[in-house]
C-alpha cells in the first residue's frame, strides 16, 4: 500500500478542522459519513498518527491533526497552482489575457495570481508563456503578450513597470558540502572563484548574479554547469554537482526539509525586485488591470 495520502483525504481532514464535524465535512465533499470515516482512518494508518479525536460532541483535530492539516493546505494550494498554470498554458492561443513570465515568477507566483483572478472571473481564459526575463519584453513589444513579469535587476527599456514582489538569491549546497562546516560567512571573492551551477544567460537570476558580482568588483561567476530552469539547477545541487545561486522561492521547501543548505555570504547584495511590465504609453485595462490588482493585494499580504 502506498504511503502517499490521497488528495480527497487531505481535503476531508482540512474540512474537519474548519467545521468541527466529520459529518459536516463529509457533506461538503458529497461523501457518506461511513465512507468519510474510512478515509480518515486510512489516512491515519498511512501516516502513523492519530489525527482526529472523535467524541459525541463532534470531531476535533488532535495536535498532530492540526499540524498535518496545515501542511495539507499548502499541498492543496500548490496543486491548485499547478492545475491553474497548466490550464493557462493550454489556452494561451485563444486567451483573453496573454501573460508572459520569466521562469521563476511563472513557477512560483503567477499560478497563484491567476488562480485568485479566476475565482472572481471563472469564465476568463488566461494564456501563459513561460520564458526568461530577456524574452518577455520582446513578446510585449511584438504584441504577443498583454502583460509580462520579469526578475531582471532593472526594468526593461521602453516598457512601463511596477514592482509586484521581492525576492532574494541564496547560495545553496548539498548537505555535506565543505561550505556547510564554515564558521564564518563565505566571502564574495570565494564565491566568484568557485565553480557554480548557474542559470542561462538572459535569465533574471543570472543577470542579477552577474551584476551583483560586478558591483562587488570580482567579475563574473565561474560556470561549472549552465542550465535553463531553476528546477534543473536545484536538482543538480541536490545531486551534489556543486553550489548554486538560486531564488529563495525555488528552494524554500528543500531548505526546510534539509535537502539543501543555505550558505551565508558577505560583501554582496542578492535581493531583487520582481516587476510587472507592459507596453509603454498604454494603461493596463480589463483583465490585465485586474491581474495587476491581484498582485498588489498579494504583495500587501506577504
UniProtKB/TrEMBL annotation:
Q: Transmembrane ranges?
A: none
The answer, when asked if Transcription regulation is one of the entry's keywords, is: yes
Show the GO MF annotations. Answer: DNA-binding transcription factor activity; transcription cis-regulatory region binding
Among SUPFAM superfamilies, the record links this protein to: Periplasmic binding protein-like II (SSF53850), Winged helix' DNA-binding domain (SSF46785)
What InterPro entries does its record include?
Answer: LysR_HTH_N, LysR_subst-bd, WH-like_DNA-bd_sf, WH_DNA-bd_sf
Query: What Pfam families does the annotation carry?
Result: HTH_1, LysR_substrate
Arranged from A to Z, the UniProt key words for this protein are: DNA-binding, Transcription, Transcription regulation
Superkingdom is Bacteria
Protein name in the entry: LysR family transcriptional regulator
Chain ranges of the HTH lysR-type domain: 5-62
Its family remark reads:
Belongs to the LysR transcriptional regulatory family.
Q: Which Gene3D superfamilies match?
A: Periplasmic binding protein-like II, Winged helix-like DNA-binding domain superfamily/Winged helix DNA-binding domain
